[in-house]
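Board notes (copied after class):
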Amino acid sequence: MKYLASLLLFVIPLLQLQAQYFNDGSEDSQMSDPISWEASVEKENDSIFTLVFTANLEEGWHLYSQKEADIDIAPIATTFSYNNAEENFELIGETTEPDIEPIYDQVFEADITYFEDEAVFTQKIKVLAESKPQIIAEIYFSVCDDEKCLPPETERFTISLEENEVTEGFTDLEISEKDKELTEALNIEVSGMEKFAPEKEEGNNFLSIFLLGFVGGLIALLTPCVFPMIPLTVSFFTKGAKNRQKGLVNAILYGFFIFVIYLLLSLPFHLLDSVNPEILNNISTNVTLNIIFFIIFIIFAFSFFGYYEITLPSSWSNKMDDKASSVGGFVGIFFMALTLALVSFSCTGPILGSLLGGSLTSDGGAMQLSMGMAGFGLALALPFALFALFPNWLNSLPKSGGWLNTVKVTLGFIELGLAFKFLSNADLVQHWGILKREIFLGIWILVGLGLMAYLFGLIRFPHDGPKKKISKARFGVGVITFFFVLYLIPGLTNTSTANLKLLSGFPPPLFYSIYDKGTEAPLGLEAYKDWDKGLEAAREQNKPIILDFTGWACVNCRKMEEQVWSNPEVFDVLNEEYILISLYVDDRKELPEEAQFNYLKPKGGIKPIETIGDKWATFQTLNFQNNSQPFYVLLDNDVNLLNEPVGYTPNEAEYLSWLNEGLAKFQETAKK
């Protein structure tokens, strides 16, 4: 068991950071559109009119009242607004809605007023001017079914009282000529893109994050808060029941409830994901959130070191324990499982926090988190069921002791190293230059040396017991740490050995260095970071283009650059045959004021284009119907697609074949 713990301690950080590789943001062609709006106007006399808005909903979908629900997490209330800048009309009363009693909503688990099938809203107005005005009415709303909510939308109607006409949409939105020109400049009209529909593959991602959570759960089992509970709990069920069969059922049920509890913890994130998907999908490039994760991981690390404990209020666990004792039966077993989750939080909390950080910094969002939580809960639950089925196995469990604290402190060092990954994300996106590649690796080396010193007994922490002879397992982990530190050291140099392929994507890119690399592109390649300049160079040199949609915080982008592009054959083709245009979709550097504009989305609504990342992210989705990174497109210098775009392609031969296919197509076209 101890040797298994040693192995897991080095598997978990790799899996933890692996969660950030999943960046599948391709758009889902199955777009839900379960509501449609209609508007009309009814004339009562020359000055009094009634505006009528009708919402038609598909079966199973709800539109919510204008009155906000008095609960912590509430649905978005429907809101009506009317443009009256010229003050040529006034509202008579408020917008009315169907008079319906609150109904229990399964999504929000509360009594909420919502409408199904059809809902009619009316607003009376009084015209104050001689000429009848145009009224712009906007409806802000969100709809839900019994499982999810869709992102909020705005529906707009322009109502002409003079002509009794209603125009739907944002057709009269005031977009300046500058906005139109800059929007038009984003559309490069790629020829041939219609042949290739975007693909979405999530199965492998979900399986990987499930396995990540499972390994995290196994680690949690080996902590002082959980491990001693296994024999105690199993013995309670098997010996305390009236018969062995009843004890087995109770123990299995106890494990099942542990699994369910951790799965339920992810449900609030599904609500956030439905209301605003970007809350979760943009965490990997959000500077503030990355800094928050950095601080949280530092706090977790020192908690594992034993300087303090992160615990939930003791009153919570006491209440759950009382409930378990007084209720009994299935409900009592559920409260016992909940009590375990609460009292073990000081050990499981940091691991869950790591899982949260890892899964939410990928674009799978709440669903990936649920898969991770499911894996975590399953790993915690399995021992209680298995040892109940095979009680003789309990004799093989090692006794609790100082080795449990060693596991906990080792996890603290791992948390400390992971913290700087999040700080590095923020640094890369903002170009602060604080954590250049060599500085980042230097910090990891110091963390590794600290872990070595602890494992070899040179330093101690508050909860360490009396000094004893170093165990074989502890010595073995220390030796592995030593070789890991040795592996990192060449990364501090400006030599060919600095490319640490096994860690590609974890440290900052090679060109983000304290050394002068000649270019700001991967591997010393020449790369244009602007589409127009790159296209001009391609035409001047009569070369095809490789359009590289990338990101500063994109782990798979770094893996491609350092593991695939570094292949001599691939490098030569990129360097000699193509014009490389690398567009960073997460670059938070502001565009010059004259280059900022408002982008009118095809379905209505405005997206402010204020940063370099805003511009290139919109450029990608507008022209290629894809928003995942890395994403590679081969074009000729007349903007014709040479072959099918690809994403993350770790196979060097496959990627080289793809490059050569595009090059052959370009040369074939040039001969015609």
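Comment from the instructor: The chain has four domains: 35-172, 206-397, 401-435+437-507, 527-670. Residues 206-397 form one domain.
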